Amino acid sequence: MQGKQFFDNHGRPIEYVRLAVTDRCNLRCFYCMPEEGIRYLPKKELLTYEEMLRLVGIMAGFGVKKVRLTGGEPFVRKDLMYFIKKLNEIPGIEGIHITTNGVLTLPHIEEFKAAGIKSVNLSMDTLDRERFHSITRRDELPAVMETFHALLDQGIETKINVVVMDGQNTDDIVPLAMLAKAHKVDVRFIEEMPFNGEGSHYPVLVWTHAKIHQELVRAFPSLSRRVDEAASTSATYGIDGFKGSVGIIAAFTRSFCGTCNRIRMTAQGTLKTCLYDDGVLDLRALLRNGANDAEISAALLKAFGQRAKNGFEAEARRAKGHAVSESMSTIGG
Fold this sequence. Notes:
Layout: E1 16-20, H1 49-60, E2 66-70, H2 80-88, E3 95-100, H3 112-115, E4 117-123, H4 129-136, H5 141-153, E5 157-164, H6 173-177, H7 179-182, E6 186-191, H8 209-219, E7 224-225, E8 234-238, E9 245-249, E10 262-265, E11 270-272, E12 281-282, H9 283-288, H10 293-304, H11 311-316, H12 328-331
Parallel strand pairs: 1-2, 1-10, 2-3, 3-4, 4-5, 5-6, 6-9
Antiparallel strand pairs: 7-8, 8-9, 10-11, 11-12
InterPro entries: Aldolase_TIM, Elp3/MiaA/NifB-like_rSAM, MoaA, MoaA-like, MoaA_NifB_PqqE_Fe-S-bd_CS, MoaA_twitch, MoCo_biosynth_MoaA/MoaC, rSAM
Catalytic activity: GTP + AH2 + S-adenosyl-L-methionine = (8S)-3',8-cyclo-7,8-dihydroguanosine 5'-triphosphate + 5'-deoxyadenosine + L-methionine + A + H(+)
Cofactor: [4Fe-4S] cluster
């Protein structure tokens, strides 16, 4: 049963959960993990679909209405479409959203609308095949482009996620933005973060949101700010003559924390109330030690009531020796 909307200790509503269904990925993007990959969790350490459904049902009871499935790569996990259909049946959940690299997605796209999938964020950092191979350490750009066009053909709301990396793909900013000229898509440029299994690649972040904006203005003088939703992480811009839009996400600068309405749940059941914390609640332990729904709700609400004000406070609270360096694949994108 859906209850009243819950607000955290800073007056922000909790209404959006990013749920990692796996820590495994079929790519090896250098900004996400080392070339040799990471130590994947044994299957028994991952939440089962049944456990995830129970937790999302509890969260829907106090106002969570949006679920985004992440990974790793979500489509690496078996029977994902079955799980999505079951998620969509939970009272209070208004739609399912997915972040995917697009390599394994194509065979399932015709099922998306019927399953309740409202939108897809497609990770695509370059349109150049050689650079794609260099960044992801896999030659899969043709498969990703097939997925891109199939999503548009099916009328699925699509956003392109581009991590901007100094010395890697800055020449791709303009070509990727041009996708929004012919297609109704939102191409979003994201500051690189140190969640790569190694730590920051640079002593100072060169391609900040301000520099990305400067590059877009240089190429597109008609760039103009649009009104975003209250909790949007992206600053969205229109360009004259474009069907779609472009956006900039200040993921490292963390300028949008004041309106953040999202929490994260890792594939092993760790609750993160901020991307930059190191986990605030072990939900898997509660589930497997027999906690009832009321006990789990109380634990969740206590965690939400102690939420960091912003990503900098969350990072400062991390346990000693737990510097931000874990792979994005382990924390749900």
